[in-house]
Write a structure and sequence with these properties.
mainly beta, 8-stranded antiparallel β-sheet, two-stranded antiparallel ribbon, 1 helix
């Protein structure tokens, strides 16, 4: 729990951690991806400046999902911290959710919820293979599961139930 320093009766956030077995990520060839031309940062889906442009390549996209290469904090020269995870890589996953949602919903969107985070191994420095599997709901919402793998395909972490909503 994260409580207010001024009044510890005020609860700001609550989380629960549990250990669970690894679930293998869905294979890219099951997504029926079409090549993605250009940069993730072209167009108006993403608003991130150069210090936050952690998606280095989008391999492909389809109605079922997207795959990309994302780098982490060390590659972006972000300040080091006592991180159990990598904030730059995870921001890249949320950026992927925004980008995929914009392609599916036909407009800009923002992340609005995260169901679960599963951490299986320390994220290495260097590029990560990130796969998003998603669905759309009612033309205004997407829900995605996003997996992080190393270059050998080893599952490192997973975000589940990432919701985005189309901006009005």
């Amino acid at each position: 729990e994260l409580r207010s320093a001024a009044d510890e009766r005020i609860l700001h956030y609550r989380a629960r951690a549990s250990f669970a077995p690894q679930t293998p990520p869905r294979r890219d060839d099951e997504l029926y991806l079409s090549p993605f031309a250009g940069s993730a940062y072209e167009g108006d889906a993403l608003f991130h400046g150069p210090r936050f442009e952690v998606i280095k390549a989008v391999h492909g996209s389809s109605d079922a999902g997207m795959t990309a290469v994302v780098v982490g904090s060390e590659d972006m020269a972000w300040p080091d911290g006592p991180w159990l995870t990598d904030p730059a890589a995870f921001d890249g996953a949320l950026q992927m959710a925004i980008l995929w949602a914009s392609l599916q919903l036909g407009g800009q969107s923002l992340p609005t919820a995260l169901g679960a985070f599963r951490h299986y191994a320390k994220l290495p420095t260097g590029p990560l293979q990130v796969t998003l599997i998603g669905t759309t709901e009612g033309g205004v919402k997407t829900t995605s599961d996003i997996t992080f793998c190393d270059r050998d395909g080893q599952l490192l972490a997973r975000l589940e139930g990432v919701e985005t909503h189309k901006r009005p």
